[in-house]
Amino acid sequence: MSDSNQGAAASTQPRKPFGRILLTGAAGNLGQQLRGALSAWADIVRVSDVAPLGDAAAHEELAVVDLADRDAVHALLEGVDAVVHLGGISVEAPFEDLLEANIRGLYNLYSSAQKHGVRRIVYASSNHVVGFHPTTSVVDIDAPLRPDSLYGVSKCFGESLSRYYFDRFGLETVCLRIGSSFEQPKNPRMLVTYLSYRDLIELVRCSLFTNRVGHAIVYGVSDNRAKWIDNAKAAFLGFHPQDSSIEFEHLFPAGAPTTDLDDPTQRYQGGAFVLAGPMEPKR
Amino acid sequence: MSDSNQGAAASTQPRKPFGRILLTGAAGNLGQQLRGALSAWADIVRVSDVAPLGDAAAHEELAVVDLADRDAVHALLEGVDAVVHLGGISVEAPFEDLLEANIRGLYNLYSSAQKHGVRRIVYASSNHVVGFHPTTSVVDIDAPLRPDSLYGVSKCFGESLSRYYFDRFGLETVCLRIGSSFEQPKNPRMLVTYLSYRDLIELVRCSLFTNRVGHAIVYGVSDNRAKWIDNAKAAFLGFHPQDSSIEFEHLFPAGAPTTDLDDPTQRYQGGAFVLAGPMEPKR
Amino acid sequence: MSDSNQGAAASTQPRKPFGRILLTGAAGNLGQQLRGALSAWADIVRVSDVAPLGDAAAHEELAVVDLADRDAVHALLEGVDAVVHLGGISVEAPFEDLLEANIRGLYNLYSSAQKHGVRRIVYASSNHVVGFHPTTSVVDIDAPLRPDSLYGVSKCFGESLSRYYFDRFGLETVCLRIGSSFEQPKNPRMLVTYLSYRDLIELVRCSLFTNRVGHAIVYGVSDNRAKWIDNAKAAFLGFHPQDSSIEFEHLFPAGAPTTDLDDPTQRYQGGAFVLAGPMEPKR
Amino acid sequence: MSDSNQGAAASTQPRKPFGRILLTGAAGNLGQQLRGALSAWADIVRVSDVAPLGDAAAHEELAVVDLADRDAVHALLEGVDAVVHLGGISVEAPFEDLLEANIRGLYNLYSSAQKHGVRRIVYASSNHVVGFHPTTSVVDIDAPLRPDSLYGVSKCFGESLSRYYFDRFGLETVCLRIGSSFEQPKNPRMLVTYLSYRDLIELVRCSLFTNRVGHAIVYGVSDNRAKWIDNAKAAFLGFHPQDSSIEFEHLFPAGAPTTDLDDPTQRYQGGAFVLAGPMEPKR
Amino acid sequence: MSDSNQGAAASTQPRKPFGRILLTGAAGNLGQQLRGALSAWADIVRVSDVAPLGDAAAHEELAVVDLADRDAVHALLEGVDAVVHLGGISVEAPFEDLLEANIRGLYNLYSSAQKHGVRRIVYASSNHVVGFHPTTSVVDIDAPLRPDSLYGVSKCFGESLSRYYFDRFGLETVCLRIGSSFEQPKNPRMLVTYLSYRDLIELVRCSLFTNRVGHAIVYGVSDNRAKWIDNAKAAFLGFHPQDSSIEFEHLFPAGAPTTDLDDPTQRYQGGAFVLAGPMEPKR
Amino acid sequence: MSDSNQGAAASTQPRKPFGRILLTGAAGNLGQQLRGALSAWADIVRVSDVAPLGDAAAHEELAVVDLADRDAVHALLEGVDAVVHLGGISVEAPFEDLLEANIRGLYNLYSSAQKHGVRRIVYASSNHVVGFHPTTSVVDIDAPLRPDSLYGVSKCFGESLSRYYFDRFGLETVCLRIGSSFEQPKNPRMLVTYLSYRDLIELVRCSLFTNRVGHAIVYGVSDNRAKWIDNAKAAFLGFHPQDSSIEFEHLFPAGAPTTDLDDPTQRYQGGAFVLAGPMEPKR
């Protein structure tokens, strides 16, 4: 980590629950939300992204790293107790890009984490691994995978890879199948998939502090009125969302059902993702 | 619809979510509850029954129709966007009567609705389609059918017929397995099956406004203390009852369990229905 | 039964397992196959149909009866120990016709059977009660009902009605979801759904002689190579088909898959039935 | 019961729901909690233990009885309407001791209860019948038995024996798989398994007053944040815990997960029980 | 083992798969069948019973032992590699007798086996652990326990105890839920539950030689026509029965179903066992 | 395809079921088995590998192609009706190698197949996608993925990607979870996982000729005695293995179970694969 921007020497009083947590994808939308929260739980928060990360807080270590860079990732994991992995691409993209960031990058992360003895990774999976389930159904955490995009396929890969590292080495992972985590829902579909920032942080907290998680899967959705997901089998994590999209329902006044019954963006939980891919590579 | 009693010309400003909703069985107990509610959601509410319907409100069209009358039902469905079907017989009755009202009548409704391009029907099914499940079990929406009466059998028919029209033509239906919807519970069993009028209206609202429902089944029961039903798989409808029979528990003070373990009205969820039929025809 | 054509006085030595079995629909394709077989199991076989039944054998009682005729059906059931009910319509038909033969007729049968103390009915249901399940799935006897036609809906009614008579009165029924029972398969789909006559007779034998059947459901399909059905939960009936459509595969040489992926007659187990209805009434 | 210490003559106005309820294990931790509660529900509460029971209240009958004493237990059950059975050993112990108290004792209880026509027993089973399920799973009431101790095995025996008495004689039982019922959680694991005294009493109330329970199983756990159990299939009992361990979470501040992934007391729901046995007999 | 009757010095060429197998209950019906078979698989077969065991063969060690005698059982297990445990009571009996032979005796067996490092026990459980399932159902190896007798309850205890010893110590057990293993079926019910001696031996062979069994449950039933059981989830054991009760069907010619629908011996899989208990102790 | 070695002009009489089938991985062990079989089903068999393919038969087109070469793969798929995809790496390997051959290569295949309108792909997945399930369990086609190696992870990727292409474009795939397909089993584990060459060919035949397959999963295992897999839900494919490892059991005489209960190669279905990875890249 010699080449990273160390914001500060580690605190001299290591009394927080975790010594060092790594947050990847820290410059992104969700990363910014979690960056602050993690400081309450770890003496040192190592924050990482390919994008600029701003100034380091007193307890932070900054590292600009491309996840596809094997050696850089190996260095990034050194001395880390737990990882919150938001890094990589979180929307549909050309396969080549997903291959580098979400597939090669994830392998680099797990391979390095295992070598460094990291004990747990909180992995930002996505509800898009089941996005081709119909909107007239409810999926639990054992539902068959139905990715709705190449992005969704890359997240299926992450769930498989992390399962392997748990079965093989005992490296624990919680796969968060995050819905739509924004300031507020942006369209009617997100009334169902909305995850508030506060609930996201609570979900990460549960994922880090539950004493044993094994290889767990849990949907990241607030306590919205309508639900496509069922977390009953993940109750051991103790996640209870406090927010709901109900307060935003006025933004999208209820109308009669849309009339094109065959419109895949309405038929499937993945919404617009189901038509977004596959994208051609940018040349 | 030329022969029906038009309460008023259609509103000149069609800005409600639905253009025209048909409410059948409007003169009945539940029909009266819903008649008012529907006016908030549709420019025109066509209200229908075999019994007198009183005066038409400004936005209403009144139609006295026998559901067994094929041509009359065909006319009734003209220009309708969605149907809330409470019509027919809602208690045990001689088979001949159920055959006309609930079987032939339902076929007339669906056949006509399909021809007129109606998109969705909210169908008053009943928990009596599973009334022969024991009171010591909890049924979800996939539980095997166990009708407790010929009435229950007629409602099974309705669920099958509506499933066919969805699979065949995409005509959506929400089957409401309504429990005991009255002002208040009338006996101890209804503490379990009670559905408040307010929750009934909310259930119909969810059934009409959820963007996609396919062919859905949901139990219509308030948030009572003891439950024989589990709506988890219908969570996509977003139905959350607001009322509970708890406020009425004082009406039926708890006693020791009844002593006849073989009493079918106590053993089975259907209560007195399980002994009510089959009735002989009235001659 | 005074007005029926009694083929012979009952045997003076009633030593067969059953005293009197009623066979309805005896003039039809399957009825003719079973008519002979039943004579080995009952002292008297009462054979019935709306169509002519030919001459009565020594042990037979003939009765030309319209199932929709309540009083005639009541008389038909007198003195009967068990029923093999093939009567009614076995293809898609206008609703009015199905209503009379398969709905009203079935009620007449069960109502009369219960009053006469009949103990068991073997009911010819159909695989068309699940015909809208895809051909890329396997349905067991608890699969959700997905009728593919109004005919299929009428068979769903029969399964519900017979369930009610069992739960209410203990009148046992075996619902045979018969596939395609012909001399030989008539098209490629029937290679999957074929039921040989010999296997049909064996299935009826198991249904009559198993000591307890309760309300049972079983698929009637021979031991064909590809299967859409799974009878594992009906193993208590002891049905083991002896024949297979393999010997007829040469009639329909394998080709590449058909190219229209959306063709419902190829997508769904019901085949051509899924498009056959609803039929308009004959006027 | 002539030799027991009768606290008082039975009330002359038998107007409570139950005439006489027997409470065994009344001197224990939970017994003391329930002893008072039962007085509201029964004219007479017969309280029993091998340990001293203090003074009898006005409505109480006291009986010091060893459950392994067949004749004494027979006398204990005379005139009893319902039993709340907390008696026996509730921790890991040498097999000989469990055999006498929890196996022979339970047989004595059921055998006598059946002979005296007792209608219902509320049986203190334990979550230790499933204690070898991992802490990364959620068990419902149909989960395979995985006892974590000889104590747990003895409770499995109780569940089987009571099932037999229900199937054979209709003697109803509710098996309460009680978690950790203390004034407050004593360690971090109990944050998950905590059952408040108030919720325990409510659970017993539901178990006694639900009109039909058959042979029911329900977990006794408060509304804690993290859960290893799922009572959805027992919803017919109407148990809704009012308390939660959340108020005690400050006693056990969250730390990073413990590091020995193979530690069975952390891997399995049974906690320390999984290593506590088998104990050698005391000689 | 100094006080037991050593039939012969151990073979000097220990080349069979097992060194020493213990067979308990060797004097019983099934014990006699297995006694010979085991000699092919173990250098030494230690045969045990409370009843006389006849002469020892060259490779045999004889031990007359009461399973309730803790010290004797401890000695019995010394030097044993695997156990085939048929000992104890195999019919309904007074609880006291079952307590000694099947509960205390089984604890003695497992406790001693664990201390001596025995690796695997093949345990004769019984289909009577599920005997209160109806004859109109098919139970798989995860079906809820429904013992039909105190004997059945004692076998449930054995399944729980052995599960505990596996989860706690890794001592493997195969629970054989043996049906009716006799020379031939003795009544019509046994046409369903028949297990030929040859198939019993094959089942024990699979149970001993499968490399890993964990804690397994499997039904011991031949390839009979009608089946109440489903071994699909135990396919890893490789048990394929070679015999069938079909060859004995002529002994019990098929008749019409028995007429008393409520007769529990006909309604439940356990047959006469469901009424046999509880037996009073012999005094 | 101008740069590939055309073995012969296409037949002038295109009367076989398929016009052109592409076989990838044709130089490998299984490829050689299938190369001949395919000629009976397609007018032209395009055979491909990175390794030399020998001489082209009269009906063959030869193409030496690296699957990671996007443009070459695109050309390879031109004019193809169906694909049998055995290409890629079929053992544990460094991640970089798997990434190119099994991940990038598979994307290239599906992307190109979709653009060329290919209708169906038979994809050689592997039982190593579930290899971390214990050998004491039976997995069906809906079992949770438990890859036992990075190779297994790469096959999970293939199952997800092909699912996406089916849901998105209707491109059908049969995922063959092939066990151990060799001339004969090479070790005791393969007695369970053995798939004869003849059964492999039959499995491919079923996968190509079943009229609709959607996205199907099926295990490729012969009719061996012990089984870890259950194909019941794939019965619509009509696969019935004709061979069994029984004839090879003499090669691995049964011994007592191995003694290290914790040996992962014995505990898990994947055998030696569970320890084989992750491999370091070759540098």
TrEMBL record, chains A, B, C, D, E, F:
Tell whether NAD is among the UniProt keywords.
Answer: yes
Q: What Pfam families does the record tag this protein with?
A: Epimerase
Q: Which UniProt keywords apply?
A: NAD, Oxidoreductase
Q: Which SUPFAM superfamilies match?
A: NAD(P)-binding Rossmann-fold domains
Q: Classify the source by domain of life.
A: Bacteria
Q: Which InterPro entries match?
A: Epimerase_deHydtase (IPR001509), NAD(P)-bd_dom_sf (IPR036291)
Q: Which parts of the chain are coiled coil?
A: none
Q: Which GO terms describe its molecular function?
A: oxidoreductase activity
This protein's record includes keyword Phosphoprotein: no
Record-annotated NAD-dependent epimerase/dehydratase domain positions: 21-180
Record family assignment: Belongs to the NAD(P)-dependent epimerase/dehydratase family.
Q: What is this protein called?
A: Uronate dehydrogenase
